[in-house]
Amino acid sequence: MLRAIICGLGWRRGIWGCAFSSWQPHQPPAGLLSATKVVSHWTAVFEEKGIPEARESSEYIVAHVLGAKTFQSLRPGLWTQPLTPWQLQCIQELSSYRLQRMPVQYILGEWDFQGLNLKMAPPVFIPRPETEELVEWVLEEVTKGPRMVGAEGGPLILEVGCGSGAISLSLLSRLPQSRVTAVDKGEAAICLTHENAQRLRLQDRIQIVPFDVTLVESWAHLLPWGPVDLVVSNPPYIFHQDMEKLAPEILRYEDPVALDGGEEGMDVITHILALAPQLLKDSGSVFLEVDPQHPELVGSWLQSQPDLSLHLVAVRRDFCGRPRFLHIRRSGPQRGSPVDAWPGRQPVRVPG
């Protein structure tokens, strides 16, 4: 359901450094070893141990140690140049973490999302490539007209469950007049979003608030600039019974609270939607990333809650063709049922 290894990482310094123990499993054979040979060696080790994305994992680790983002971006001369003992030892150490099924993002400590280099650290949820599509859809909708543009020329945005800050910071970087309130119930996520905002020099336009969206009795402090134009979230949406089926990379290292959405994956989604009318401006919008089973479930739930005045107006599919993103709008008559786009990326709106 979710990928354990995701391409497009940032590659400067692993969070673990290279503080080595005496344990040296699967050490490459002695001799003058080039980067290409070391990649081949660790690819074979990873494949033997059943590590997903064996070659990609090996290439990312070697490239990281050599100071590059990807193996392909290395200067060709570095592919065949003998590695130093320190480089070999560092690759050994980082690869040992991968053998324990730690995600590459955590091993290296950085990740690229929407062109931004973000710090990553366990157990904060690792954003997936699908979430970049959610950001792109929000940006498309904002640029279509004045509906989502605030008084100062940019939308006011609330992100629920900010994690590393990937969604909030991407929107801030692409919408220079926007302002964001980012909330999360996890202390580690709040701290990491703060750090990433400072790294990207976006801290002046973001308010980061510890907040549990399921505690709806307190929400006024989420509105420092008044009602928002947009609520955006990639909430926990995995069906509880599916949690045990997730890859070891996810189960062992990522926070289950950021993943488990309850019996039907809807626990946090319904809290967000119940809270949304108190937060949104008239005709404000909610954008959600959900499980492919959720568009129908969310549509039915909204029909059962007419007092919320929220209507599902569009569904979009991800790059694998799965209905994964919802656009829900406050107020206005509900006409017909939303239709998800197929094929391609453009949503089909409710007719009429």
The secondary-structure element order is: HHHHHEEHEHEHEEHHEHEE
Helix/strand-derived class? alpha/beta
Q: Roughly what fraction of the amino acids lie in strands?
A: 15-25%
Count of distinct structural domains:
2
Provide the gyration radius in Å: 22 Å
Low-pLDDT residue spans: 1-16, 19-23, 332-352
- Tally of strands: 9
Based on Cα principal axes, name the global outline: elongated
Share of residues in helices: 25-40%
CATH topology of the largest domain: Rossmann fold
Mean pLDDT: 86
The first-to-last residue Cα distance is 35 Å
* Order of the strands making up the biggest sheet: 5-4-3-6-7-9-8
- What's the CATH class label of the largest domain? Alpha Beta
CATH architecture name of the largest domain = 3-Layer(aba) Sandwich
CATH homologous superfamily identity of the largest domain? Vaccinia Virus protein VP39
Task: Tell me the number of helical segments per DSSP (H or I, 4 or more residues long).
Answer: 11
Domain Methyltransferase small: 157-245
Domain Release factor glutamine methyltransferase N-terminal: 39-109
Region (Disordered): 330-352
Protein name: peptide chain release factor N(5)-glutamine methyltransferase
Annotate the secondary structure layout:
Layout: H1 35-48, H2 54-65, H3 76-80, H4 85-99, H5 104-108, E1 110-113, E2 116-119, H6 129-143, E3 156-160, H7 166-174, E4 179-184, H8 187-199, E5 206-210, E6 228-233, H9 248-253, H10 267-279, E7 280-289, H11 294-303, E8 310-317, E9 323-330
Parallel strand pairs: 3-4, 3-6, 4-5, 6-7
Antiparallel strand pairs: 1-2, 7-9, 8-9
